[in-house]
Write a structure and sequence with these properties.
By secondary structure, the protein is α+β, with helices and mostly antiparallel strands. It is built from 7 helices and 13 strands. Helix 4 links the parallel strand 2 and strand 3. The chain starts with a helix and ends in an 11-residue tail after the last strand.
């Protein structure tokens, strides 16, 4: 569907530049945080985070991107989007329908001051949440991590992990006595973790909640996570700041 939609967009909007493609909601949120696109096409039904979940995170920002939902669920989409500033496409999107969406987007992008109000987007998301289909059931959370440590292979209990950090082609697993490596990308790893126990704070970092001592702002105004008994501090990207409101 991603390849099909991109091909259709190239036909009706040749000057459009696609900056990222995500396989799931968590990966999408990280890419949006990095690339700061003007327009985001979100499938409503995705593993990890639904398109509605991702849009809700974006709606809390000062200037959310223009969002187009892609869905197969016509029974609620038409009513929900009929009078909304957010558009939708039914799968598979025809060229004729996509042309209408692109025309709307171009008109809105030509008037930056008329960005989608966060309150209006949040109201729409609340309406959609009551009618959206269930997401794909998640597998049981990971209990053990098999990781490389030098010439050894370690079997690390998940409760020993302090945080995960993306490291080129690998993901680093930090525990009390050092760092090990796994080949699983952090975007895939996130889907296998208990979201109540592990918090993604950046597209490249997932931290164990029980090891978070608190937060502080650095001299650049970035929110930093302080860890219990460790000197390093981890940057929280803007799309994940809400996790720490009230701390």
């Amino acid at each position: 569907m991603r390849e099909y939609l991109e091909g259709q967009l190239k036909t009706v909007w040749p000057e459009l530049r696609v900056v990222a493609r995500a396989a799931n909601g968590i990966e999408a949120l990280g890419m949006i945080d990095t690339e700061a696109p003007d327009v985001v096409f979100l499938d409503i039904r995705m593993p990890g985070l639904t398109g509605i979940d991702v849009a809700a995170r974006l709606a809390s920002g000062a200037r959310p991107p223009h969002i187009v939902f892609v869905t197969a669920y016509d029974q609620y989409a038409v009513e929900a989007f009929e009078h909304s500033a957010v558009d939708y496409l039914l799968k598979p999107a025809s060229l004729e329908r996509l042309e209408k969406t692109v025309a709307k987007l171009k008109a809105r992008l030509a008037r930056p001051a008329e960005a989608v109000p966060a309150a209006a987007l949040q109201a729409l998301l609340a309406q959609l949440s009551g009618a959206a289909p269930a997401v794909v059931p998640a597998a049981a959370p990971l209990q053990w991590i098999r990781a490389s440590h030098g010439d050894e292979t370690r079997l690390i209990p998940i409760e020993d992990v302090i945080y995960f950090q993306s490291n080129d082609k690998y993901t680093s697993v930090f525990v009390a006595d050092g760092e090990s490596l796994i080949r699983t990308p952090i975007s895939k790893l996130r889907e296998q973790l208990d979201e109540q126990q592990f918090w993604q704070i950046h597209r490249s970092v997932i931290v164990a909640a029980r090891h978070v001592a608190g937060t502080r702002q650095d001299f650049r105004g970035r929110l930093m996570v302080q860890l219990k008994g460790r000197p390093e501090q981890l940057v929280v990207s803007r799309n994940y700041v809400d996790l720490f409101r009230g701390m």
